[in-house]
Amino acid sequence: MAYSFVLIIILALLLAGLVMSFFAFKLKREEYKATGKYPRGHYMGRGLAIGIAIGIPIAIVLESIFTGYIVGLVIGTFVGSNMEKKHEHELRPLTQKERDLRKKTIMIFTALFAVGIIAFVLAII
User: Fold this and answer.
1) d(CA 57, CA 64)
2) For the segment 2-60, what is each residue's pLDDT rounded down to a tens digit?
3) DSSP secondary-structure letter at 41?
4) The model's pTM
5) Sign of the alpha-carbon dihedral angle for 53, 92, 99, 86
6) Helix or strand (DSSP H, E) at 92
7) pLDDT for residue 123 is more than 70
8) Do 68 and 59 touch, CB atoms closer than 8 A?
């Protein structure tokens, strides 16, 4: 019963995150059409996505999800930081709508993380 409740909460948070991502991409596309520039952090996000994609096979080879994830984050941070510097002239500050949406997204994924920790602890007990 407790697992079903936790799974429902996780699913609801993931769905909320998906909806927030849709609005974030839509807002980013609208702002790009208006200004011709991406918001700060755009290339960092791309770098992190690349890093995580690289970290997955590393995790499989090392048989350690944690190690692969950390290696991917380090690689992604390095790649994203370099891309941000390279394309600095193409970046603009975040609009107020983007800042608000980013705050909400962070809250949702923090809640998802907390529920995941609770589910993990419940599974161990």
Assistant:
1) 10
2) 667 767 877 887 787 788 788 888 888 888 898 889 999 899 989 999 998 999 999 89
3) T
4) 0.69
5) positive
6) strand 91-92
7) yes
8) yes
Task: Tell me the DSSP string of 46-88.
Answer: HHHHHHHHHHHHHHHHHT-HHHHHHHHHHHHHHHHHHHHHHTG
Q: Encoding tokens for residue 94?
A: 């975040």
| Beta-bridge partner residues of 91 | 38
Percent share of the chain, pLDDT over 70: 97
Q: Are 31 and 102 in contact (CB under 8 A)?
A: no
- CB under 8 Å to 59, separation ≥6 — which residues? 65, 66, 67, 68, 69, 72
Q: Where are the domains of the chain?
A: 1-39+95-125, 41-92
The per-residue pLDDT for 3 is: 67
Nearest Cα neighbor of 114 from 5, 6, 8, 1 is 6
Tokens read off for 30: 């609208």
Would you mind telling me the total number of residues written for the chain in this entry? Answer: 125
**pLDDT bucket at 76, cuts 50 / 70 / 90:** very high
Main-chain phi, psi angles of 40, to 5 degrees: -55, 140
